[in-house]
């Protein structure tokens, strides 16, 4: 009996795979566990549509990441920070604070992270690399001043 797997099944296959299994295995294990459905014409058509939708969604996300990286690349972010008597920062500036400022500047940072995760602890210019999903990168200069 041909079935479409609805979830990963160890030693059988991954979600979306079409497999030939014994009828007893399908009826007694796969169907009751909602791990598979019979591979009918309508089920196959639905699977094909789901795969197309997933590919479109993935392409849309990759395009958005590419455009965000292109827009952000080379951007210089100026951040005003409080300093102590000796001219040092109170604490440090990390990814959270930098992303908050970039979002205020209307950058879409969905799925992005800073490659060099070390928090910034000194005034001045600091070069950072922001990595987006799909392998896209953007160089950003963060300048801290009092």
Describe, in short, the structure shown:
By secondary structure, the chain is of the alpha+beta class.
Q: Mind explaining what this structure looks like?
A:
The chain is an alpha+beta fold. It folds into two domains: 2-60, Ribosomal Protein L9, domain 1 (3-Layer(aba) Sandwich); 67-145, Roll (Ribosomal Protein L9, domain 2), CATH 3.10.430. The chain is built from three helices and seven strands, in the order E-E-H-E-H-E-H-E-E-E. The mean pLDDT is 92.
Structure characteristics:
Ribosomal Protein L9, domain 1; elongated; 34% helix; four-stranded mixed beta sheet; 146 residues; 7 strands; three-stranded antiparallel beta sheet; alpha+beta
Topology summary:
Blueprint: E1 2-5, E2 18-20, H1 23-30, E3 36-38, H2 41-72, E4 75-80, H3 95-104, E5 113-114, E6 124-131, E7 137-145
Parallel strand pairs: 4-7
Antiparallel strand pairs: 1-2, 1-3, 5-6, 6-7
* Strand order of the biggest β-sheet: 4-7-6-5
CATH fold assignment of the largest domain: Ribosomal Protein L9, domain 2
Assigned CATH class of the largest domain: Alpha Beta
CATH superfamily membership of the largest domain: Ribosomal protein L9, C-terminal domain
Determine the oligomeric state from the structure. Answer: single chain
| Average residue pLDDT | 92
Strand content: 15-25%
Class based on secondary structure composition and strand pairing: alpha+beta
Question: What is the N-to-C order of secondary-structure elements (H for helix, E for strand)?
Answer: EEHEHEHEEE
Shape: elongated
Number of domains: 2
Which segments are poorly predicted (pLDDT under 50) over 5 or more consecutive residues? none
User: Helical proportion?
Assistant: 25-40%
CATH architecture identity of the largest domain: Roll
